[in-house]
Amino acid sequence: MLRGVTFAMLRSVSAAMLSARGSAPLLAPMHSARRSWAQLSAGAPAARSLGTVGAPQPASFEALDISGVLDRFELVRTERVPERGLTATLYRHKATSAEVLSIDAPDENKVFSCNFRTLPKDDTGVPHILEHSVLCGSRRYPLKEPFVELLKGSLKTFLNAMTGPDRTMYPVASQNKQDFFNLVSVYLDACLFPRVLDPVEGPRILKQEGWHYDVDDAEGPLKYKGVVFNEMKGVYSSPDSLLYRAAQQATFPDNTYAKDSGGDPDAIVELTFDQFQRFHDAYYHPSNSRIFFYGDDPLEARLDLLDSYLAPFTAPATPAASRIETQAKFATPRRVVERFPASADEAAPGAPSHMVMLNWLLNEKPLSPVDELALTVLDELLMGTRTATLYKAMAESGFGAAVVGGGVSDELKQATFSVGLKGVAKEDVPKVEALALETLAAAAKDGFEADAVEAAVNTLEFQLREMNTGGFPKGLAFMLSMLPRWIYRDDEGANVADALRFEAPLAELKTKLASGEKVFEPLLASLLVDNGHLATIEMVPDASLAEEWAAKERSRLEAAKAAMGEEELADVIRSTADLKRAQLAEDSAEDLATIPRVGLADLEAKVKEVPTDMSALSGGVPLLTHPLPCAGVVYADVLLDLQRLPVSELPLLSLYAALLTQAGTSELDATALQRRIGARTGGIDVGTKLEQPVGDSGAVGAPDGVVHKLVVRGKAVRDRLPDMLELVHSMLTDANLDAQPKAVELLKESKSRLEAAFLSSGNSFAGMRLSSRNTAVGYATELTSGVSYYEAIKEMLTTAQDDWPSLLARLERLRGTINARDGLMINLTSDPDAIDGAKPQLDAFVGRMPAAPAADAHGEDASKWSRLPLAPREDEAYAIVSQVNYVAAGCRLFEPGEIADFGAASVASRALSLGYLWDNVRVAGGAYGGGCALNPTSGGFAFSSYRDPNLQATLDIYAAAADALSESDISAEALEQAIVGMVGDLDKPLTPDQKGQRALNWHLTGVTTAMRQEFRDQVLGCSPEAFRAFAERLRKAKLSVSVFGSEEALAAANAKRETPLPIKKIV
What we know:
This protein has 38 helices and 27 strands.
């Protein structure tokens, strides 16, 4: 989970489905010295009163007294939104002017969010740091981090906090009504009465979450530490992040978006507690809030619960100035050149490492609903697919390695459009700019072909009607789409619910198109071609920049230490020690008891099942069907067996899968194929599935056990199923693999994306390296997604450029090997009454597939996996150009064939991650995130950290984890909490298509309902003895290490190690 994601990183609506507060996959609590509010209030007065706890808080929705609650709220508007089957009511709290949007929807996944407009006036990152900090304890819940206590032991389906350039959001979601009540109660208290307002606890929280000086003794070096400080050092190590930051600032030079709400590390260390507290006072008042409820919970009880928290406040005579000013459009294009940290090779003369992106500000006034929809379709025409007009021109130009810029972005007050390339030679930068401008001008002049428009409109309409948000709460997706109208157009009386409506503007758009009206060409001309508000960003690689930044920081710290008197330095040393003690101290039982919880009695004892029927199509091809309510959509997965491929060919699979959708067929070129897919389906994707089968009776699987499939996944309305299957058949059997330019383009793009991912997600690659030491699946995953794949891509790219016939022959032989009915399987999820009608169409599809592999097919059988040489268990380190590190260590904790109490072990592992590791790696260590994970199927276990300022110190924390777990005395309450949290993870809501895919995985890997029930029973029956047994097993394990970090950090770590880590370079 990412904590404090900024909108500059969000390039689409789906990307805006943020996860914010923490790191990669792992989270846990902050612990400090504990004092009661009575003790705190006996000291110096706070800058603003936290208020008193007052009367006991009602414990449930049912306990609330809702009589007269509607009298305390002004009804602004209420209306049905038939497209979404919901009723939206907007209220204004009379006493405080807080606005409340209450949505009644037949959805058990209830959502709440407290949102504030938060406008940064500098680059200190105060909105971001405050977002982290308000969840560090509050008036009613005086723990160090109630957020993590909820994470440990709630049934939440979403729990987070997010910072954008102009807003901060605190959303929660749960399917359990009591759990939802608890989550809302804790979040409201956190937002309105946080400990950051306390004169003692507030500065400590700022030091922890923001920044502080860190030094252990008078002779030691002074350092900066802080969670957000290190998080943003990681962000500023990413060239892509620097590009988007520069683009936002150049496009919006005159309003709040010119400031970095996430924080510039250079400026973060200038933030004072006074600024920090004043920002909360200004922007976290209810009068500046936009509060959101959604779901099937009791409507009046929502308002009564909210009113109980708003009651101490009144509307200020002069509300905070939180209006976001409109950026006036400038008439003349501007250009900005900035540097980014690069390796010596990337910065070498002639190296194609520049980045260039063109950015337009599209509007000063809000667009009409039909123009908003038309702009979305225009974006699809220009950038929606690889064969879209602008994307195709940029990607196939040969000027760069990968397209950057996501086209239209509408998360801010004014919409923008961005496009460019990275991996560009210096001399080609002007060519990229000219190409973008010429392509847009030509499109405005010549227009778009009818089949392209049909495909774009159908794609949009399918997405609007399906409204498939995956595992993301639908109510939260609705809120994110409504929030811009709510916070930007409130002074216009804009109808917030209009953001959910699409039938009328879609009908109007279709009518215009049917009449022959030119809709997109004039829109393109006015918004882009004739728009002078163009900011072009060129990013230049600089091999000395990382060291320049590091030297500047060292110099600044040395000067700060030199300016300190003896007593001041002693104060910093004491403060460092006091902070660490506070961070690692346990919350008192009294404080922990304040957190409202659900218990074991609230949990379902039985696993949830997905209806699955197994049958056979013609030729004995297996068919899995899942009759589920799908609103007329059919989801189909066509699977082909990949285990007949030799391991040497596995790195080819990603290229092969991409060519199936991107290279066209003998009858349809690449553009026509994409348009046909867009016009007749909801989308077709090709990928691979690589899973490890479970052992007998739920034992750890065999190391050479593998399920490996090519998966073609498509969706369509039921009467379009024949069209979808025809397209799938053409792609599988007739794809134009002889597409050298496309293959080179795809390989360059993959290489570029991996290079960026090493810097932003080094923990993922370190984890793959560890897994490759345990199982064939881990080895194959690393070979097709990790560092080994990166090396293979470089070899394939050379071959594609210099010896295309040999690579083509391998691709064609791969197709001939896997295209066979004896390796075919189909998984179908649809409405129950659609399944029988689909079977004849599936039979026809199967009958057209080749009966057997081609004559020149690879002959190896599945036994080759037993001969697969797993990666050696050797410590390793990879040097990257970064200001932070990614530190991982792991082992095989359970042996193949072993049957153990895996459910209880998983509870213990989760508790270790959310307790000891969070406290030590994140809170005290300053990493953006850290934790551990257990895989019962493979027996593998791994620690990892994310954007970590430390390296060897983190490895030392991992080494001490077993002792810490065994020495901890888990209470009955904490154990119940850990079990509840684990069950919450198991019971995440799934969409119908996700349920079908989950059941497919169970089938392929041999996981039975009985096995899942046994695992759940083990979770529910977890005991303190299970924690001790897990700790003892972990103590006996020998960890191996994989680290991604800077050369400086690796050298410093090796100086402390008996056996230095061997250092390799990737880029």
